[in-house]
Amino acid sequence: QVQLVESGGGLVQAGGSLRLSCAASGLAFSNYAMAWFRQAPGKEREFVAGITWTGSTTDYTDFVKGRFTISRDNAKNTAYLQMNTLKPEDTAVYYCAAKYRGLLLRADRVYNYWGQGTQVTVSS
Fold this sequence. Notes:
This protein is mainly β.
């Protein structure tokens, strides 16, 4: 039974920082690419950041480049999203997702495991 559990969300003022964590179980974590998506009310889910199963390549949406950093710690079976200089438009539910190897990171259809989501709210 594969399970992804996000944590670290909360309320922060604009310009602040948060670090999201995604703890994985039930899978060989080191063989899976990981990604973060987000969804705001009334909007479609969008790609935020992804990291390959090797950890050698990362990808970010233009809206977060230079502010967010995705990383992984295979020894802890955990992926992270460090979010700095947060803006009110970053407010959303953030989901982590996993897929078995592969190079395609941005398309949500290729991810077959999803976490429950964690709320990030950025106040102005």
